[in-house]
Amino acid sequence: MDNTETPVTIIGLGLMGRALARAFLKAGHPTTVWNRTAAKAAELVAEGARVAATVDDALAAGTVTIICLTDYAAVHELLGASERGLAGRTLINLTSGDSAQARAAADWAAHHGAHYLDGAIMAIPPAIGTADAVVLYSGTREVFEAHGSPLEALGTATYLGTDPGLASLYDVAGLAMMWSVLNAWLQGTALVRAAGVDAATFAPFAQRMAAGVAEWLPEQATAVDSGSFATEVAALETHARSMTHLIEESRAAGISTELPELIKSFAARAIAAGHGGEQYAVLIEEFATPSAG
Ligand code: FVH
């Protein structure tokens, strides 16, 4: 069968599910859709999709079924009623969740005789169907290898390994990156705005800072993996003094000091433990320690 002839099913037509369906249609795949609220399928039908009357019909229509619902509870609620129809089916679950939920879903699918791959979409709906849309997959390698070509219609398909929890793990780790960068930018923006500089004026500088720091990551990762944090660039104590400047500047500007205080508290603990002369990445030990309480 030609790649574009692989029939696919999409269950879940929220903003993301509709984008996935459109990408498959654009790539030429016969595409069947099902959604709890049937009206959301209307535009896709006009674009060439077929609507399944029931979830069981939807599962039977595609060589592969993509699931994209709000959360894993919705997946179990919906497909729990179709468990008998899962045997031999191939399910690729792109619903967001954590790694424990993904592993539990893989066990559940295996119990019902389905082939299962978990996934995480690292993109917004308008990017789906372009190379910029990175979609992470983990779980049964054979499922990824058998369906990797149709999955390329959605974006850049990246297989992480046989542990079905890996895609969700990377997803939440990626979100940690995203929110940290945004929070840092918001702190800086609140500071400069207090001095009359608008966000748009500060943004190009902030963008260069974020890109510059990103360049450091491979070297910092080497230090983390080796556990060797010697530095000839900047010691943690030097960073900590600058953190104090950020706290004082924030206080003087009348803005929140919570984020800089939190950052400083990590550094203070590491310095108290004797790591003040080492490089910033030594803080990994603070991040890797469970929080009290
Ligand atoms: N939208 C985005 O930018 C992000 C990008 C990163 C990945 N996420 C995840 O993708 C999943 C779906 O997101 P969505 O934006 O399409 O979300 P919604 O618009 O909320 O659509 C959710 C669909 O789930 C259906 N649904 C919910 N609960 C049930 C249920 N119990 N039984 C059957 N279907 C259910 C819902 O149906 P309806 O409300 O239209 O009837 C929608 O089809 C999500 O995991 C994101 O985190 C998107």
Describe it.
By secondary structure, the protein is α/β, with parallel strands linked by helices. It has 2 domains: 8-161, NAD(P)-binding Rossmann-like Domain (Rossmann fold); 198-288, N-(1-d-carboxylethyl)-l-norvaline Dehydrogenase, domain 2 (Orthogonal Bundle). Helix content is 52%, strand content 12%. It has 11 helices and 8 strands. The protein has helices at 15-26, 42-46, 55-61, 72-79, 99-111, 141-151, 166-194, 199-226, 236-253, 258-275, 284-287, and strands at 8-11, 31-34, 50-51, 64-67, 90-93, 115-122, 134-139, 156-159. Strands 3-2-1-4-5-6-7-8 form an 8-stranded mixed beta sheet, sandwiched between helices. The longest helix has 29 residues, at 166-194. It starts with 7 loop residues before the first strand and ends in a 6-residue tail after the last helix. The site of ligand FVH has 22 residues, from helix 1 and helix 4. One of its GO terms (molecular function) is NADP binding. It comes from Nocardia otitidiscaviarum. Belongs to the HIBADH-related family. Residues 8-158 form the 6-phosphogluconate dehydrogenase NADP-binding domain. InterPro entries: 6-PGluconate_DH-like_C_sf, 6PGD_dom2, 6PGDH_NADP-bd, HIBADH-related, HIBADH-related_NP60_sf, NAD(P)-bd_dom_sf, RedAm-like_C.
Number of H/I helices: 11
Strand elements, count: 8
The span between the termini is: 56 Å
| Order of strands across the main sheet | 3-2-1-4-5-6-7-8
- Estimate the strand proportion: 5-15%
Which ligands does the model contain, each kind named once? ligand FVH
**Helical percentage:** 40-55%
Any guess at the CATH architecture of the largest domain? Answer: 3-Layer(aba) Sandwich
**CATH homologous superfamily identity of the largest domain:** NAD(P)-binding Rossmann-like Domain
- H/E order of the elements? EHEHEHEHEHEEHEHHHHH
- For the record, the count of structural domains works out to 2
State the secondary-structure class: alpha/beta
CATH top level assignment of the largest domain:
Alpha Beta
Shape: elongated
Overall mean pLDDT: 96
**What is the CATH topology descriptor of the largest domain?**
Rossmann fold
**Sheet with the most strands?**
8 strands, mixed
Domain NADPH-dependent reductive aminase-like C-terminal: 163-287
Pfam families: NAD_binding_2, RedAm-like_C
GO molecular function: NADP binding; oxidoreductase activity
Protein name: NAD(P)-dependent oxidoreductase
